[in-house]
Amino acid sequence: RCVSLACDFNGARSLPIVAVDEPVYRRLPAFLIATVDKFASLPWTGASGALLGGADRHGRDGFYGASEPGTGQLLATPLLPPDLVIQDELHLITGPLGTMAGLYETAIEALCVRDLVGDVPGIPATHRVRPKIVASTATVRQASTQVHALFGRPDTRIFPPPGPDRRDSFFARTVTQETVPARQYLGIAAPGISPKVVMRRVWLALMGAAQKAYLEAGANRNIDNPADPYMTVLGYFNSLRELGGARRIIEEEVQSTLSVYGRRVRAGGDPGLFASRDRFNEVVELTSRVTTDKIASARRRLESPYRDPGRVDGAIATNMISVGLDIPRLGLMVVMGQPIATAEYIQATSRIGRDDRKPGLVVTLLNVHRPRDRSHYERFRHFHETFYRSVEVGSVTPFASRALDRGLAGAVITLARHRHAALTPSDGAERLAGVRDQLEADLLRVFRERLDHQGFAPGAEREARERSVHDRIVDLLDSWVTVVADYQNVGARVRYQQHEG
Known about the structure:
Distance between the termini: 35 Å
Order of helices and strands: EEEEEHEEEHEHEHEHEEHEHHHHH
Shape: elongated
Structural class: alpha/beta
């Protein structure tokens, strides 16, 4: 039996109460799906630890742990920690984010580990049980190295495993584009012409050609108009600076020219490939500078067919769309310049053409005066036929000196607060002195074990890393005790944060 949970570290008590007898709680598999940024709330919010096991009471509103002593009715056995952790988009958990996540994962796994006593042949009478981690991604290279540094797991299994036919893994089958239309990539470079002029002309050509195809297929009268996926252009930019300049061009020059674009035909010649658009809605932006409510509204509008009054003619975005934007309707993208990372390019361009009945078209505008763009243009076909080979190796270094400066305190306080019940409540920050020796030994053991999985060869480097972690943890605990003593000497109370409790 499984319980589907929508977990949020900031609202840990939102865990549902299952309408079954109490002993069943212990039999229910527990799993955790949370975004990595929620890890930052663990040192600050006492109730968040209930998601990682240890909740020993329940009430009308959910389960309660050590952060709320005396609340709710006592359970016969505390709830178990998660058995399964699902990590989506593993390729994103790299670089600075992966490094910080690796430090926090040290504390999170220590909270999830439990000692299991049983009588099973071939298994020790007492053994440690850790949660299974399932990580998914379409663009990763040397995953075992990344997983080893991030989760401390030396054994990584790829699923589904490779079989005799690389196009048929039993779970998925690759078919040719003759059977199912595939996403098409088109590279454009124009020496001697400004990239902004090239972008303007490409947007005009794509929007004018889509309008003509839309009209010829019955326009709004045809509910299943085959040109509908190409009536919305999604523009991808590598920086906010490039996006800001492009927005002005699209809103002013493209919009004004598009209203008369269909009239540009040769005298006495064919009607031409393009048609004019009389209406052009406001350009939608999907970037970090747009509020969450506007992002949600933009996503809804992008799903609307072109006949809908709230439709979108043009949208511009940065790497925000690389994950999570799953809108099958979209079929047309313009990429301004080759993204720095190949994984980013693959993920971003995969946002369109997700429905095989609406194959996508990706137009990449390359600047031949940039060596990297020129190289991609000259090898355009070969690169796109083999671009999974070019995916970069992820870098995760949680025990680098600068990473320890920035992230070790959060990981240490997370483990201290949620592993020792005396420290869990809001005012538990005052009680460190009573458990200092036990806590210090526990912290040093946990972080020393994680260091063993970081691939440091025995010798000077390994000893230096261990000494650095040891000194930082001891210094942090000393500072914690000193701060509490200074406040208590003037009659002040100490909490982890002002608004908790």
